[in-house]
Every structure is written in structure tokens, then in C-alpha cells.
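Re-running Glycosyltransferase to confirm reproducibility after the cluster update. Everything else is unchanged from the original entry.
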Amino acid sequence: MTTTTSSRGRRRAPTRIERAAGRAAALQRPRVILAALLLLALTSVMLLDGYLRAEVGGDQRVRTGASSSEVPDSVLDGGPILTFRGGQATTVSVPDKTIALTFDDGPDPTWTPKVLAVLAKYDVPGTFFLVGSMVSRYPGIVRDLVRQGNEVGIHTFTHVDLSYQSDARVRREITQTQLALAGAAGITTTLFRAPYSSETDAVDNYSWPVYEKLGEEGYTSVFVDTDSDDWKKPGVAKIVRWATPEDGKGASVLFHDAGGERSQTIAALPEYIEKMKAKGYTFTTVSGALEEQRGGARAVGGTGGTGGLQAAHHRATGVTLYEGEALVAAVAVAEWTVPALSVGLMVVGVAVLGRFAMMLVLARRHHRLRNRRRFSWGPAVTRPVSVIVPAYNEKECIANTLESLARSTHPIEVLVVDDGSTDGTSEIARSAADRLGMRNVRIVRQENAGKPAALNHGVRSARHDIVVMMDGDTVFEPDTVRQLVQPFADPRVGAVAGNAKVGNRDTLIGAWQHIEYVMGFNLDRRMYDLLGCMPTIPGAVGAFRREAVLEAGGMSEDTLAEDTDITIALHRAGRQVVYQEHARAWTEAPGSLKQLWSQRYRWSYGTMQALWKHRKSLTDRGPSGRFGRVGMPLVVLFQVVTPVFAPLIDVFTVYSMVFVDFRAALLAWLAVLGVQLLCAAYAFRLDREKYRYLLMMPLQQLAYRQMMYLVLIHSCVTALTGGRLRWQKLKRTGEVGTPAGVSS
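Result of re-run:
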């Protein structure tokens, strides 16, 4: 055993590096906040869209047989217009030979413009009781409606029966609709019609307090005298007949311009207007009927598009106007975003299912090809190889690592490259080597320069033409090195990826990572192997031809994912990279969510750096171009794009459960989970792992996967904002012992 020391060191002393890393972490906090804000904004848009799309049903009563003992008889027997001037409930009837034509449930982009066209043709005004959510979605229609001289009233924001709602909910429904009107047309209104209302004699003890409360706030509640029942689609003749008042009486007449298919309404309106005019009727708004009964001027037609305010309208100003415009703008964003996300969801869904299908088919083919009896890489590789162990403050793990290498069935030399450790890693390694009688161990010390520099130092110092790289927290099985180097019998092979496994899998976080390693990493590697575009050789267990690494310029410090960087570089140089499933290594996965975040953040960001660094391969010729046009798109699609947009599946699942169909959404989510379980079970079968860990998979999908999404989004934000990230050392416990002590 020998010890050497390198004097070259291009970076700061460890304590200063730790301080710099702390400053770098502080700079990352705004990006974490930005990533969280992006997710929050997406969630808010989805919730707003779902809230706006609350279904508007038919105009029938919700309850029957309710008592009206608390309602004044003057209201029950009175006219359709209810006011509370001076705090006293007063009803007003529409004057004889007068029609107050009212429409409910709009605006609707299909039917409301057609209704407006009919009214404009006959110069007839209408009073439209609008649903606030529809107003915010179609503000242009409301502007046209008001500009044409029609009157508007409130029909709540979500078309909910207010009788059973709290005072806060009632106020919210009214206020939100007023804001929508302010943002759409710059007005507010004093007219109100409750959903599912009819004539005044239907007012009961449940609904009366609502009318009283709104009356105290200055609202005029409007009921009907004559209901066309057009929502029943009884035919044009019946609609016209049912809407006609008897004996020349005036009436508040109800039609619908939304809430369903309204072609019969559109056909009935011209016939109805002509019939009533022939009988000597005039048409007015609700406000016009009120003014006439109070001795004001009689309104007999539309305003001719003059834009004058109706009596019930008030110009929105100040905070109300600004908040209304903000609401309409937010809804416009939601109206654009949700359909776009729906398309994205379809693309992601196809990509995810396509990936699962590819993994299953190609993994099975890979397993059968590499495990058939006659398969051979060539003559057995028996010559010694060099094992490089970069170590920085690995006092908890380095002894276990060396002990596992002492059991190797293949001849090796071991180079422990101490990258400026301050915890006595070198001394512990030297003591362990002496205790184990390992004369093939060299401990190489250098000032702290980072993992790539440590690996390069090891490659230059290696005595053999094949170098195996492993992390200082990893342990090998006795046969790992032998299995790992056999593919080098094929001269085309430049590097080999081993099978990294989670050793500390007895914790919840460890179990989740175990599932991810077996399914997400090793199943992927089988697929990429057959496609000839393996993107990453894991730092925990990988082997390289020494000359190939040196020709590629060594392990680069350009990215935080030096393993991905060197793997892509070898592909571009025409070297073949393969996966050896039988070369197993046991690594210590992060034991806390904070450390897991740090590790995956570095991996994700480093992968993006490596892909960007090698982007020119997309236009290259030869092996580099082949990887660029096959490997790069697959890696970008499966490791960046799909994971970034995969949260859409969960977001839309929650959205559908809340706003669409809970059962159907749940079944769809369970179906996707079933596909993933199938893939995971097959991956466990190939790796001969115990299936009991798959019991953790549903919880993994609900919790762990969401964290991985956030990590990737955080990485994308960092990349897009031009941020830099330093290497962050993870805290190790040394709980992954020698292979003999690891249970699967």
C-alpha cells in the first residue's frame, strides 16, 4: 500500500467552499419560490376554471312543500317586482298591455347573440339575468348586450339556490357577479333574480330571508308572471302560447338564452314578439315597468345602440372596476390555459404510456438476449482492472466500501482518491486496508478540487487499461467487478453501466427510491442499451476503457452530471455503452427529504447542462449524429419534457374529481397506477427483487412523485434563469454494510 499527495488544487479550501455553497444555496431560494409560485399559479388557474364551469341546470325548483308562513301575504299575492323602499317590502306589477321580456342563465356564446339579433330586428329591449361565471367567460357578449340598450340583472355567480346558503356565500355570489359585470361592461346593477325562482307565490320561509337581506342592500328582486317553459323544449307553438299573458294583462315573461340547446327559443321569439305587438302590447325592461308604475316615462323599445345607462345600471368605478377587470383577465388566462393544458395532457399521456410500452417490450428482449445460454461478449476478461473510489468526507462509509472490494473475485487495484477530506477519510481507509490485508490499495490525496478532478486523478494514476468507478458510499458484491468488465471482451464497448441498488431501503424514503431505482433507472437502461443510446453510467457502478476516457478529455467539470457528460461524449466518439444487469452495487440513498431534494436537483440540473453541452450532436454526422438524432430526443422527451408535464396528469385528476366526475377520474387514475404497477412488477421480476416493496407504490405516486416533479421544475427554472449550482455533499450514515449484510 502506497500513499501519494497531489499539490495541485484549483479551488478554495473546504471551509471556504462550504461557505460558498451556503451562498449558492441562498441564491437558489428565490428560484425555489419561483417554482412553487408557478405550480401555485397553475393550481389557481385550474381551480378558477373549475369554479367557472359549475353546471347551469334547468330552471326548476329545488324543493317542494316548504312553508311560507313568514312571507307577507302582500308579497305572495303581489306583482313580480319586489322592492324594499324605506325598508318595507313592496311588490310592483307590470302595466297592462306591457311585456317585460326577461332571459335567464346567459350569456351563452351560441344562443345569446341570436337572441340579441332578434331583439335588435324588432327594436325590443330585454332584461337579461346573467350568471357571473358566464359573464367572466364571455365579456364581449355582455358588452354588446348592454351597448344594444338591454338591461342586465344578477342571477348569482354559479347558479346556486341561495336559500340554503350561508350569508357569506350569498354575499360572495352577488359580489363576484357584480365584479364580473364591472370587468365586462363597466357597470353594476340593482336587479336580482334567484336561480330556480318562479312567481312570487312560490317564495317560502327558506328563500324569504335572502330577499329581505338583498332588499336591505338596495336590490330589486324580479320574479315572473308568465313562464314560457322553453327549457322543456315543448315546441314553438307551446312556447308562444305559454308565454302569452291572459286578458291583456302586463307580464314579466321568462325565456332562456343559455343553459342548454335553445333553438326552439330562437324560433319562437320572432313569432311571439309579432303576436304580442299585433295585440297592442309594448315591450319594456324591468326598470321601465317600475318607472311607468311610478308615473315615469314609458319605455317602448330599445335604445338604438346609444349606450345610455338603464335605470338599474350604475357605472363601475374605482376598486370595483379594477377588481372586475382583473377577474375578467384572470378568467381569460384560465380559458386559454386549460385547453392548452388539455392538449399537453394528451401528449404527455401518450408519451408516458408509450414509454411504458417501450420499456416492457425492450426490457424483455434485453433480458432474454443477455441471459440466453449461448450469449457471450467474447473471451472472458480476466486481466486486472483499476477501481477508482473518489472520496470526500466519507468516514462513515469508506471502510465498508474497501471491505466489499476485499471480497472481489476479480483481480483489482484500488485507488482511493481523497479529495481534500477534513474528517480523516484517508486515515480510516489506510487503517481498513491494513486490517483487511489489502496490499492492492493506493490512497491518493489531493487538495479539494471536486469529484471530476478526483476521478481524473484516479484515471491518470491507474495502472490498468480498464477502470471501474464507484462512489465512496457504495459497496460491491464479490462478483460485481467480474461481471462489470466482461462486456469489454467486445472491442466496440467503451463503457459499461452497472446495476445500482438502494441499500438503505427499510425506511419509507428508501423504499420509494428502491422502487424508482429498479423501475425507473434499470428498466430504462435496458431500453436504452438496445437502442444504443444509454445516456448515463451511474457514478455508483460503472466501468470504462481508460484510453476512451482520456481521449474524451476526462471527466469534465463543465456540468454537475459528469457521469452523463462522459457517457454522451463516449457515444459521440463512436464507443458503445452497454448495461450489465448482473453487476450489482449497493448505494446509500439520501435519508431525508432535504438531502433527496439536493441530490435530485443536482442530477436534473446536471443532465440539462450535459444535454445543452452536447446539443451540436443533433446536426453532426456519424456516431455523434446518430446519438444526437436518436438518444438526445429520447432523453429530452423521457427525462425532461415528460416529467415536467407529468404533473398535468395529477392536476387534471384532482380537477376532474372535484369538478367533473369523481368516479370516472378515480378509475382513470387507478388505471394509470395499474399500468405503472405492471411495469414495476416486471422490473422487480427481472431483478429478482421482493414484491412487498410495491405496496409502497400508491403512496409513492401521491407523495414522492410530486416532490420529484417539483425538483425538475426547480431545475428548469434555474436553467432558464441562468442560475449556477455547486456540488453539494450529502450526509452519509454508513448504514449500507458489506454485500453479505444487505437483504433484498
